[in-house]
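Let us work through a complete example step by step.
Step 1: write down the sequence.
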Amino acid sequence: MSALYGTYARSELAFERGEGMRLYDQHGREYLDFQAGIAVNALGHGDPHIVGALKAAADRVWHTSNVFTIPEQERLGQRLVDATFADKVFFTNSGAEALECAIKTARHYFWAKGQPDRYEILAFTGSFHGRTLGTIAAGGNPAYLEGFGPALAGFKHVPPGDLHAVREAIGPQTCAILIEPVQGEGGVTAMSNEFMQGLRAICDENDMLLVLDEVQCGYGRTGRFFAFEWSGITPDIVTVAKAIGGGFPLGACLARGDVADSMAPGTHGSTYGGNPLATTVGNAVLDRILAPGFLDHANQMGQRLFWHLQQLAQKYPDQVLELRGKGLLAGIKITPPVRDFVARLRDDHKMLAIGAGDNVLRLIPPLIVSEADIEDAMARLGAAFDAIAAEETASAVAE
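Step 2: predict the structure and record it as tokens.
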């Protein structure tokens, strides 16, 4: 009997070592990693530059407090500002905390402008923004809200892709729109450039803020630093986590300067957020992400992944119903139950993937993936589909 909360249906599999695109379990068996710790291990496993930075930091200062200046935090913040639309950064430990900061920043911005009644945020069905009481209310998924009392007020939800529904939902209390440019947990749905541009226009027309959740789809996952860059828009607030620490707990809320200005001392805080150890690792990750050619490689591999998935869909039309996503955040809507298929891939074909809503298989490999790795993954997926087809044929014959 485990001493841990029973909130995860855990496999007994435990990994003891990782190298690049591969993980090795307690029995020494090798697995192809197309899960990346749910988009966290953007640089794979055991990246020498990150490992070296972490070891060096461990010999200096692990943690102080945000009441002191943290040089590595200042450096990482400035580098993110230099690389993005943002003027200000707040560091957190997780994506949910980054979203909480974004929600508070948006609401406080209007409070500081003398509009305290403007606190409502328009969000979208199928979204996932975290597991805190605030972020499950923002996501609006009934399955995540059940059992935790009344949902936090101040959120409305409309279907993604419908600009008319967005306009109809705006009221005098609406202050912002919150959206994932590519939904992850909800089913790997990529928003069109036209929809994202329409949201930006609606926000401009109604003096609202556009808040983007790029916790999963940002940091090179779609082939650009942030997914919103494909649509050519400029957001007001963006959240990032997962890949920013390459496996070390780290998140950030990025904002325009005028939007962040109202967040004065005492309005928000974090004990661990952006501590010396975390931001040293964050700088090492950013070294790799911003290195010449890295994002180009991720973009190219995203294109190759979708080409191979198209071939897979043609070969298995009865099992592959739809391809979704963008770049190296790919979704395959399949006919076999996705939970069972993920287990089959893991146990029988030594490939790690993860499910998403709407019976979608999610492929989110490290950004260092090669075409040979992609071809290997396709072979393992094909073998899994073949095995299911053979079992179905044998069952039909037996009947």
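Step 3: interpret the result. The mean pLDDT is 97.
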